[in-house]
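#lab-general

N.A. 3:47 PM
ok so I finally got the sequence cleaned up, no stray characters, all 509 residues accounted for. can someone with queue access submit it? mine expired

B.Y. 3:52 PM
send it over

N.A. 3:53 PM
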Amino acid sequence: MGRGDYLGLGSRLGSGPSELLVQTGFSTETRQAGYLHYWLGIADLAHVLALRDSGVLPAGPGRRLLSALLDLLGKDASDGGYDPAYGDAYNSREHLLRGELGDDAGWLSLGRTRREAGRVSYYLAARKALLELHEAVDGFAATMHDLALAHVESWWADLTYWQPAQVSSFGHYLLSFGHEAARHLDRIRQARTRCGLVPVAAGGVAGTTVPLSRTSTLRRLGLTGPATTSRDAMWSVDGLLDVVFAAQQATLTASRLAEDFLLFATEPFGYLRLHDSHCRASVYLPQKRNPYALSVVRGGYAVVTGRAAGVVAAVGTGSAQTDNWIYNYGETLDAVELARQMSALIAEVADRASFDTARMAGRALDGFTEAADLAERLVAEQHVDYRTAHSMVARVAAAAEQRGESRLTGEDRQSLAGRPGDDVADADPRSLVLGRSQDGGAAPRQVRASARRLHARLVRQRTWRLDARGQADAATGQLVEHARTASEQASPWPAGELRPITRQRRIRS
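B.Y. 4:20 PM
back already:
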């Protein structure tokens, strides 16, 4: 490595980086170029245009710098010259540009640190990744919606503690996951909004004397984030947490459903059968169809949770510390991508699975699942308090269990009657579920109404996502086109003439 290849060598530093530092810190940062390469290019183009607008960038260097950045933007990250020997991703790009442009490349650092370029590119990458996660979670919610409608009148014993609890509609169960996923869509949107708070014209930490327009730069980037302080925009860590927690919560819902499906697919239950495309065979046991996809989803949640915990630990320092960021660009974006994959996978698993509704209905009353209905009817007909009715039914259920029964018999129900010949409960699953007619209940009419509410919510989310994606793509396209046009024309200031910086301006970021 020659002088000038490594930033500061021969000026502030008397030695290049140690091999261990290259293999650890710099290698970690340059691996993140896979996520950041394109967005570093967008951030660089926006900054050069801002310098050009301010009048401090000479015409010739400005045109050559824009042209080189456009060429680099069109390359894949693997061809971007990222080498940890030169430092992080920003330093690698600077090394490549200096090799092509010489001192013209030095203008790129005017009024901006490498961490500003990194933050802007990270937040832009995160905004795009969150849109993709939003789409996957939306797809999962839509799958739950459609399955719920298909199983509105599929009766089963809903579970608590994985024990039979109450006769219900299987569609009611499935719809709960759809509504939970829909709430994740709001959280993902909020995280994406937070990622609009980017540091522009932040200088080292307190701003810059270069008269850069934050408003114009944000507009070019397609952002309208709030102006707080340059320090807050540069060094606050809540954005990292918002991103990774949005990923974790989305994956948690997928994992919880996978956990239930693992149970339902076991022989004692036999409620569902995974499609062959989501299973794999045992190497040794010929009879087995292992539900591999469900293990993938559960393991994916564990990995995302581990990454979230790592991000929380890494940001637990004093403010304005680089260890908050060295690992977390990649950790958070890896988490979002894995969450996207897990959300898409569990949706596909649910969509292709087959459900044994006859078996579910046949076992709906096992485990004395009509007990609460019996107790409530005793309250209504015999005017006893619920705790007394609860005890009466519990004693009858305990006696039936001791006889080896799994459900109450007609004699058991008759023993609870207030008068001989009374029948205190109809043991038909359908009749029991039809009685749950309050808002949000399991009665078919209520499940369909809840599904309509979910559908309307998902339509609004999709409309937002399409608009957000269109606006982001349009802004990026316009920025690139503006840069291309500017690379071919003169600066608004004559070549070689610079607008003087006569006073320090307050730059809001």
